[in-house]
Amino acid sequence: MAQEYPASEVRPRRRGRKLLIGLFVLLLLLAGLLVVADRVAVGVAERTIADRVSQEVAKQGAQSTRPDVEVAGIPFLTQVLDGRYERITIKLRDVQASVEGGAVQLPVLDVDARNVRASLDTLRSGQGDVVADTVKGTGTISYDSLAALLKRPGLTLGEQNGKLAVTAPADILGQKLTISGTADVTVADNGAVALRFNDLDAAGLPNLPLARAFLSNYAKSISIDVPLPDLPFQLAVREVRPLPEGLAVTADAKNVPINSAG
Question: Which InterPro entries does the annotation name (predicted)?
Answer without folding.
Answer: DUF2993 (IPR021373)
